[in-house]
Amino acid sequence: MQSGDLIDLDITDVAHGGVFVGRHEGRVVFVPDAIPGERVRVRLTDTAKASFWRAELVDVTVASPHRRPHVWRQADVDMPPEQRPGGADFGHIELGHQRALKRHVLTDALQRFAGVDVPVSMQGALPLVPDAGVPAAQTAESPDGTGWRTRVSLHVGPDGRVGPFAARSHRVVAVDDYPLATAAVERAARRRGSGVPARPGRIDLVQPTDGRVRVIPRPDGRRELPPEARETIVERVGTREFRVDAGGFWQVHRLAAWTLSTAVTGVLRDLAADGVAGDGAPVLDPDAWHLDLYGGVGLFAAALADTGGVRVTSVEADAAATEHAGANLAEWVGARAETERVDRWLAGLSRSASPAERERLRRGVVVLDPPRSGAGGEVSAAIAGLEPAAVVYVACDPVALARDLKTFRERGYAASRVDAYDLFPHSHHLEARSEEHTSELQSLAYLV
Fold it and tell me: Full-prediction pTM beyond 0.85?
């Protein structure tokens, strides 16, 4: 068979990356827009590999009871595949079943790539604690899982068309709405889509806590950072404020920073209560040395410091983020932010740490929130080599997380629990948290 041929498939499983699995004469075929249990007709798009093919969904002949009208009308199955926008690849699935599928993908990755079989919990974003300064409508998820994106990237094609990319392509498609975006970001996106064409490239829309949407143009061929991206904005997490560049990294879901900070703080308090890091004290060991790796502007370093970590070091490669982290952590005398690649910083620490510093590190906690590719074997091994009392790992890719957990396991650390959060509703992405201890401590380990 060849690309362009039509075949009928039974969809039997979900795979990492937002695609679903069928088989044709024993060969795996990956198909988007389907649901396990469905019978579908697909058009083959890539038959070059002997091990698997790829296809696009043309029609659903037997639908799953979990299928719903797509939350993004233009991404629904009755639209031509080449016109369906990307970014909402689970939008045709009932929200609860989306989360069941994501939990399955995470559990499967942990078993296959890490060799561990641990309890995995799955839930949505945590509601904010009611606050007089936060409108009631912004303190919890929407019932249908829409309206959460505070950051959206639009693309500008060579013909001046403005919109998202079509799914799994770099072709710009025009759309009428942006249901995953907050109301303010959606209004801004519609204006950009119907306004004067911009130069080919990208336009980022960013809505911080103050509610005003910033527009950051990023035309192709422009190497320098646009001035709009360097504006300092303020993001609020509970009662704490964090300075960050408008073009810098911050969580996309309007509740994500709160959810992850709350989850990590909960693990740290559990550690202290168990006496793992605090010897039975109600706070982390104040004499230990705690690390926040890939620390950004200091979100988790603040959680460490708030929980009693007097000595906290945040390490981040982006100099602008580190500068903001220094300001965000200024209230804690023992907290500092350092600009360096994490692998290089750990290598330097391993060479130069004094016996007293190594002892403080062994009684401390390491929190890491690496990029989607994960920390990698070298960094994971270096962290384990410091022998911290616990490691709290925040991940956004199940396979990368599992591979790193295998490295930790091989060096005496064990994860006994994974907590996953659906911070990207209607897409295949999720966040997972892990907290690990050395096996000598016979303690629990969680993934966040």
Answer: yes
Give tens-digit pLDDT for 366-391.
999 999 999 999 999 999 999 999 99
pLDDT, tens digit, 9 for 90 and up, residues 316-327: 999 999 999 999
Q: 134-179: per-residue pLDDT in tens?
A: 667 778 999 999 999 999 999 999 999 999 999 999 999 999 999 9
SS (H, E, C) the chain: CCCCCEEEEEEEEEECCCEEEEEECCEEEEECCCCCCCEEEEEEEECCCCCEEEEEEEEEEECCCCECCCCCHHHCCCCCHHHCECCCCCCCECHHHHHHHHHHHHHHHHHHHHCCCCCEEEEECCCCCCCCCCCHHHCCCCCCCCCCECEEEEEECCCCCEECEECCCCCECCCCCCCCECHHHHHHHHHHHHCCCCCCEEEEEECCCCCCCEEEEEECCCCCCCHHHHCEEEEEECCEEEEEECCCCCCCECCHHHHHHHHHHHHHHHHHHHCCCCCCCCCCCCCCEEEEECCCCCHHHHHHHHCCCCEEEEEECCHHHHHHHHHHCCCCCCEEEEECCHHHHHHHHHHHCCHHHHHHHHCCEEEECCCCCCCCHHHHHHHHHHCCCEEEEEECCHHHHHHHHHHHHHCCEECCEEEEEECCCCCCCCEEEEEEEEHHHCCCCEEC
